[in-house]
Design a protein that fits this description.
Layout (H helix, E strand, L loop, with lengths): L4 E7 L2 H15 L4 E7 L5 H10 L5 E2 L9 H19 L3 E5 L3 H12 L4 E4 L14 H11 L2 E4 L2 H9 L7 E3 L3 H15 L8 H6 L4 E6 L8 H14 L4 E6 L4 H11 L5 E4 L4 H10 E6 L3 H8 L4 E3 L7 H6 L2 E3 L4 H13 L1 H7 L11 H10 L1
Parallel strand pairs: 1-2, 1-4, 2-3, 4-5, 5-6, 6-7, 8-9, 8-11, 9-10, 11-12, 12-13
Bound molecules: uridine-diphosphate-N-acetylglucosamine and uridine-5'-diphosphate (UDP).
Uridine-diphosphate-N-acetylglucosamine binds next to helix 1, helix 2 and helix 3.
Length: 373
């Protein structure tokens, strides 16, 4: 019998944790692997929310988050911190997800030790290195080092092949976010009270249509966030809608949103929701306004139109299917597009089709099979 493979998963932010927990669960349950988990703590509160709900106790927690951290200080600390963990663990594989500073530094630290890297959610490309920033370049850096590329879709796989990645190293697996959504939906069904946090707001806004909002992108700091805030303020002037906005803990987001939107009747600025309650927010929303990556995948999967407040997207699948639309950060455009959907049932119905190009909920199992072979 061959010795089990030691797999070190490395992640540090909320979206990475959501998209990695299905894989950690799969590795833990499979005796072909020894599963070890290193979290960087690039996020603290928002990471811990996911670790708790997914019942993951990391073997290493670098606890690196600093208030309003700069990209260079964060990256330097990540590289040395993760490097030290690799020297202790000496894994057979390092697995990173997506495009954050943690993912990029984790891959680089592994490469420096000639430990093979597997990249989950590989091949997403917007074609613009400043949108999303710095994620587009983080992904490309990881892609240049990875030995296994787990592309969520055929489109993502083709982007890698265009960059001359060895076809034998590219596997279309679906996106583990769909595994995570299935898992959380089952948990909500099994555990009463798990997704009840919004009940007071649902009562306060009874009779109004809910618009769910998230925004946090670095490239939107400044004018972009101001445009988004202005659009929310103007939409809230309609008596028939209410906007529920769990505000990201990044102080650059909080400052702008709280000063522009605090105290408005039809806007609820709330703390980040844990995953079950955020899934509930999508569920009760008529539409989602977001600049998030993950929400662009989840909203279409749940049949909710999503207006993407970005100039470009590396997730064209929802746009192609007609369930997502790029609206940028100009307030006039956001308001016009949202009102069009709110006021034209046929336009709304055309977008509100459950559409799921991102996977079938079996992505983690496919990834585990590749890591085992
Ligand atoms: C990071 C990722 C981004 C990802 C996003 C998901 C990078 C460069 N950016 O952006 O790709 O889309 O996470 O949310 O990797 N903070 C807290 N508590 C938390 C989390 C953040 O207080 O739980 C505050 C801290 O002041 C921190 C700041 O937010 O310094 C910024 O966090 P950081 O991870 O650097 O950037 P994000 O904008 O969250
Ligand atoms: N999310 C959450 N609570 C919130 C907002 C978002 O659990 O209050 C989840 C959401 O379901 C998605 C992920 O966080 O899975 C997206 O994270 P974020 O938007 O921070 O990062 P991105 O996906 O843009 O990298």
């Amino acid at each position: 019998m061959t010795a089990p493979r030691k797999i070190l998963t490395v992640f540090g932010t909320r979206p990475e944790a959501i998209k990695m927990f299905p894989l950690v669960h799969a590795l833990q349950a499979d005796n072909r692997f020894v599963s070890r988990v290193c979290v960087s703590g690039q996020h603290r509160g928002m990471l811990d929310q996911v670790l708790e709900i997914a019942e993951i106790a990391p073997h290493h927690d670098l606890d690196l988050m600093q208030p309003d951290q700069t990209l260079d200080a964060l990256t330097a600390n990540l590289l040395t911190g993760i490097g030290q963990v690799l020297d202790i663990e000496r894994p057979d594989w390092v697995v990173v997800q997506g495009d954050t500073a943690t993912a990029m530094a984790g891959a680089l630290a592994a490469y420096y030790r000639k430990i093979p890297v597997a990249h989950v959610e590989a091949g997403l490309r917007s074609g613009n290195i400043y949108h999303p920033w710095p994620e587009e370049v983080n992904r490309k850096i990881i892609g240049s080092m990875a030995a296994l590329h787990f592309a969520p879709t055929q489109t993502a796989a083709e982007a890698l092949l265009r960059e001359n990645v060895d076809p034998a190293a590219v596997h279309v697996t679906g996106n583990t976010v769909i595994d995570a959504l299935h898992w959380i939906t089952q948990k909500i069904d099994a555990q009463s009270g798990l997704a009840d946090a919004l009940a007071p707001l649902e009562a306060r806004f009874a009779g109004k249509r809910i618009i769910g909002v998230t925004s946090h992108r670095r490239e939107n700091f400044g004018g972009g966030m101001e445009g988004i805030a202005d659009a929310i303020r103007r939409l809230a002037e309609r008596g028939d809608v209410a906007l529920i906005f769990p505000v990201h803990l990044n102080p650059n987001v909080r400052k702008v949103m709280h000063s522009a939107l605090g105290g408005l009747d039809n806007v609820a600025l709330i703390e980040p929701l844990d995953y079950p309650n955020f899934a509930r927010l999508i569920d009760i929303s008529t539409l989602m306004l977001t600049d998030s990556g993950g929400v662009q995948e989840e909203a279409p999967a749940l049949g909710k139109p999503v207006l993407v407040m970005r100039e470009t997207t590396e997730r064209p699948e929802g746009i192609a299917a007609g369930t997502a639309r790029l609206v940028g950060t100009d307030a006039d455009v956001i308001v016009a597009e949202a009102c069009h959907l709110l006021d034209h049932p046929a336009a709304y119905d055309a977008m509100a089709r459950a559409h799921n190009p991102f996977g079938d909920g079996q992505s983690a199992a496919r990834i585990a099979e590749q890591l085992a072979s």
